[in-house]
Amino acid sequence: MTILTLLDHAAVFVFALTGALVASRAQLDVVGFVFLATLTAVGGGTLRDLLLDRPVFWLEAPSYLGSAGIAALIVYFTAHLLESRLKTLFWLDAAALGSAVAAGVGVAIEAELRWPIVLVMGVATGTFGGLMRDVVANEVPLILRSGELYVTTALAGSLTALIALQFGLALPICLALAALTTFLLRAGSLAFGWNLPRYKPSPPRTF
């Protein structure tokens, strides 16, 4: 199993857990669990592959769909045991975000694309599945939650991989650094409230 396949599998499974947790909060049936879990799991990678005109990863290996389905069933039967499904959702999403960003970056680097495209692929792969999950479930998208870092963490993780690559580090190490950077920044935002300054409109001038 290659590093990219491993990252895709990790992102699919953990993102599927988050989709199923959202389904549990919406009190959906088991089919709704599987649908929302699968949508979340493959959304970012599908967008990446379509944009790069490469075979869509889960069409090439349907086992990804099986992994998402298993994650959905696990949550369906155990979600009631969690003390806080929302808090668990946030932390699982942070872990999945790191894996997906690294997977997107790795695919773009292996395709020998220019660095702006590498950054876009990292961010898109990491964020699009979660965005689809939240929109379909009529939740406020995590990507837009006020006062938290999200897209910034994906961008920073992607940039970390590119910088590490320039220093001659092996691709697996670069991708591991990308995943770690993304997760740590997102974790810091969740645990300590790290955020970027928000826009504050000034009152209109009177002349």
TrEMBL record:
InterPro entries: Gly_transporter (IPR005115)
Alphabetic keyword roster: Cell membrane, Membrane, Transmembrane, Transmembrane helix
Domain named Glycine transporter: residues: 6-79, 91-164
Main localisation: membrane
Source organism superkingdom: Bacteria
Subcellular location: Cell membrane
Pfam families with a match to the protein in the record: Gly_transporter
Chain segments annotated as transmembrane: 6-23, 30-51, 63-82, 89-109, 115-137, 149-169, 175-196
Bilayer disposition of the protein: Multi-pass membrane protein
A single Gene Ontology CC term: plasma membrane
Keyword NADP attributed: no
Family per similarity comment: Belongs to the UPF0126 family.
Protein name as catalogued: Trimeric intracellular cation channel family protein
Protein species of origin: Palleronia caenipelagi
